[in-house]
Amino acid sequence: MKEKDRATDKQSRISLKDKELFIFDIEGVVLRSIDDDDINVDSKVVETLEKLRENGKKIAFLSNISRTPFFRVAEILVDFGLAKSQNEVFTAGKVAVEYIKQRKKKARVFVISERGLIVDFEIDNSVELVFEKPVDFVVVGMKRNINFEELNFALECILEGAELISVGYTNYYRGRFGSKEGVFIGDLPICEMLSFASGKRYIKIGKPDPLIFGFVLAEFGVNPKFAVMVGDKLETDIKGAKNLGITAVLVRSSQTKKHFVPPSKSFPYDKPDLEIDSLDEILDYL
User: Fold this and answer.
1) Do 192 and 230 fall into the same domain?
2) What would the pLDDT profile of 79-91 be if each residue is shown by its tens digit?
């Protein structure tokens, strides 16, 4: 039997009927980009989500986004009929806030990021956004105009005991900032630099790290073996799901080219359980 035929035969035997929770990547799967001036939603995507709900499935939306505040991401998904409420929406920024709240009450947090992640911390009264010591947590997200003054302050805080957190899991970002269009450094390299300088490890919040997946599963009370992750990136969506025993579905035709992460060193392990060309094909496996 040819390799392609074997793959097709394997997929034909997969059933998603017993799955309880379907987690969808946002950018590249249900929307092209959250930053588009004119956001268009494919009616087939909305119909697919509705049919999953009619079959008793729980729906969640998960993104490594930190540059856009959680409330805005949730607002867009609800307004376009994708999410039923903001309780179905999870971003790296939202999970970072919740993680810190669980770690320490009234934590003092210094954030290096663009407005999105800063807003996530500003609107939550359980944490305090600060720009002076003492600092409990240094949180790094996407910032395309980062400067050495804030990096040096962050390093001082880490050396004095602050915990370092990377939000977004991006190696670099290709896009536009002001009048400049090109490549911008992501949160991971910044944290790698601060980690190397301080000799301290850091926490990663974003796919494929298990922390962000675990947060979603806990919110819905679902065991990983009864969950499905539907994404467009092997290095984040698929790898993260497979690491936790979540069924991984790759949408081949919708891969976004904005965010880049370090390539996987274990490609065979990161192969999806199912590959589809359009989101509505997932209904064929119920």
Assistant:
1) no
2) 999 999 999 999 9
